[in-house]
């Protein structure tokens, strides 16, 4: 019997800000984003989303770096990647299987885009001196704050489908139970109405080769319905340039687009259905939801002035 294989990606989403300094210098970014989102939706099992806009915001606001470098931003990304695999690299009795770890975070096959949060953060030799308390409760509380989320979407809108906190350090199980009870009492998180409202916690050892000033650190991997905001922005930017048929000639040189530009239409349709499914996930009757039959009209101006719509 062959073992189940899982495709997990760490995908850095482009800048969404309208400012000149933060906009991408690639004019065809909306085309590339919509094509990539289709592949990530249909071909990946898990996508850990890291948003360039949010990463820059965290570096400047939380780390107090005036002009964060690419290396410093990449340091945040590598911290998340390393923390998300600690239970696999330092295995214990539980949570030592990637498939089992991620399966509970994904309510349906397409809704596999996970947001991340990490605290306390350090970049190279720069340390967040403002973070003093690193108790389990404080770490888990900060992980639920919007400013800690590495995605430019507000968790105050929508609800969580699932949450996994990976806590690193010497932690007693009683501390975890107390922290979960306090979070439940204060109602810090809002869960979907049709599923279990609980935060999963995985305990992990810290690397013996990396010295840190904090005894406890935490990574949050969460599936939240506000992720559709990112996909909606991709669709909006795509529609903005495709209606003018801007910069499509270079794509016609590729075999995929040699005969027509229908791949753009299929990609937009797939991403739009993904947005609809995330929106439907907030409803109590989500288990009866049929993909591709959302409430919004999917018709839009397509490539070369044609009109396409979902069947």
Could you list some keywords that capture this structure?
two-stranded antiparallel ribbon, 311 residues, alpha/beta, 10 helices, six-stranded mixed sheet
Q: Between the first and last Cα atoms, what is the distance in angstroms?
A: 38 Å
Name the average pLDDT. 84
- Counting DSSP E segments of at least 2 residues, the number of strands comes to 10
Put simply, the count of helices is 10
Query: Which of globular, elongated, flat, extended, rod-shaped describes the shape?
Result: globular
Order of helices and strands: EHEHHHHEEEHEHEEHHHEE
Strand order of the largest sheet: 1-2-3-8-6-7
Radius of gyration: 21 Å
How much helix, percentage-wise, in residues?
25-40%
The helix/strand class is alpha/beta
The proportion of residues in beta strands is 15-25%
Main beta-sheet annotation: 6 strands, mixed
pLDDT < 50 runs, ≥5 residues: 294-311
């Amino acid at each position: 019997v062959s073992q189940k294989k899982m495709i997990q990606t760490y995908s850095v989403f482009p800048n969404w800000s309208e400012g000149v300094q933060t906009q991408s210098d690639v004019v065809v970014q909306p085309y590339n984003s919509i094509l990539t989102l289709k592949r990530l939706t249909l071909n990946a099992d898990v996508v850990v989303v890291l948003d360039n806009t949010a990463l820059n915001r965290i570096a400047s606001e939380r780390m107090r770096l005036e002009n964060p470098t690419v290396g410093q931003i990449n340091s945040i990304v590598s911290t998340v990647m390393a923390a998300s695999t600690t239970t696999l690299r330092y295995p214990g009795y539980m949570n030592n299987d990637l498939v089992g770890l991620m399966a509970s975070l994904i309510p349906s096959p397409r809704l596999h885009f996970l947001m991340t949060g990490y605290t306390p953060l350090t970049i190279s030799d720069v340390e967040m001196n403002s973070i003093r308390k690193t108790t389990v409760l404080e770490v888990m509380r900060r992980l639920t704050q919007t400013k800690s989320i590495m995605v430019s979407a507000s968790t105050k809108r929508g609800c969580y489908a699932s949450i996994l906190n990976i806590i690193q350090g010497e932690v007693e199980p009683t501390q975890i139970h107390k922290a979960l009870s306090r979070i439940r009492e204060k109602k810090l998180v809002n869960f979907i109405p049709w599923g279990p409202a609980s935060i999963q916690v995985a305990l992990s050892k810290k690397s013996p080769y990396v010295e840190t000033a904090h005894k406890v650190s935490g990574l949050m991997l969460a599936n939240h319905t506000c992720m559709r905001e990112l996909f909606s922005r991709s669709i909006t930017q795509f529609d903005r340039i495709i209606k003018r048929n801007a910069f499509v000639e270079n794509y016609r040189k590729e075999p995929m687009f040699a005969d027509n530009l229908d791949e753009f239409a299929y990609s937009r349709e797939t991403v739009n259905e993904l947005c609809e499914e995330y929106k439907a996930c907030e409803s109590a009757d989500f288990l009866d939801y049929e993909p591709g039959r959302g409430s919004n009209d999917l018709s839009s101006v397509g490539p070369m002035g044609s009109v396409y719509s979902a069947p």
